[in-house]
Amino acid sequence: MNRIVAFAIAAAMLSALPATQSAFAQQSEAPAAPAHSLPSVDDHVRLLAQKLDLTAEQQEKAKPIIQEMQDGIQKVLDDKSLTHEESTARMHSVHMKADKQIREFLTDDQKKKLDDLELHTHPGMHGNSPASPQN
Fold first, then answer.
1. DSSP assignment of 59-86
2. pTM of the predicted model, to two decimals?
3. What is the pLDDT of residues 42-68, one digit of tens each?
4. Of 42, 3, 6, 1, which is closest to residue 24 (Cα–Cα)?
5. Taking Cα atoms as reference points, which of 125, 124, 120, 117 lies closest to residue 54?
6. Phi, psi for 97 (deg, rounded to 5)
7. Cβ distance 8 to 36 under 8 Å?
8. d(Cα 93, Cα 34) in Å, to the nearest integer?
9. How far apart are CA 101 and CA 97, in angstroms?
10. Which of 11, 102, 131, 134 would you call most buried, defined as having the most Cβ atoms within 10 angstroms of its Cβ?
11. What secondary structure letter does DSSP report for 125?
12. For residue range 71-98, what is the model confidence (pLDDT) as tens digits?
């Protein structure tokens, strides 16, 4: 179950959350949220904007994609009938769909930054492992 939660968090942040999750937690005076709680859509978009240098227009395009992704991940997390493998596969699918949609409006430089974030945050999730060639 911990793997599912960890994967959901990683997927929800499109690779950026693991590097910054502790920073958000340290800034907050509120009690810690459950391990499976997802960041707000605005926080996620803000984080992507910072890491990828998104324009205001790109941020507006990303917002509904991130919302759809988080809704999909939450639905998978809430479905207790799924096996670990089914949950992992569905969350991966939700994340990859969002990743593909966001990449449609990124510049080549931003795509490279996203590749780097994904590679260093969770290698292998996107078929990018240190041993595999970069796209």
1. HHHHHHHHHHHHHHHHHHHH-TTS-HHH
2. 0.66
3. 999 998 999 999 999 999 999 999 999
4. 42
5. 117
6. -60, -45
7. yes
8. 23
9. 6
10. 11
11. T
12. 999 999 999 999 999 999 999 999 999 9
